[in-house]
Amino acid sequence: MPRLAIVTALSLVLTGPALAQHSHQHHGQHAAPAARPGTAEPASTREYRAASERMHRDMDIPYTGNADRDFAAGMIPHHQGAIDMARIQLRHGTDPEMRQLAETVIRTQEAEIAQLRAFLARTTPR
Known about the structure:
By secondary structure, the chain is mostly helical. The chain is built from four helices and no strands. 71% of the residues lie in helices and 0% in strands. It is flat, with a radius of gyration of 20 Å.
């Protein structure tokens, strides 16, 4: 078998599963498998799904062409999503290391949101 045919066949074998998985994702968002019919999702899963959906919806900002402002405006909902997920972890999680990390995420992301909002406030066109 010619080398090109071997390389092409190997390429298809290796990329096929990735392409199939990609087709189940939406606009760069990771699509989580839905619960099986007749089974109830844990409360934490429902809350994580809602937080993720809200974050992705809120990150769909109108872009201005100003990379600095667009970065700040997009990162605020992204960081809020991290805070929301950390709070879900604190409500439902039990691992001490993850609880401590969740508390740190809340503190640091809140501080960064304040910094991003201050930047947007002082750079708002008048």
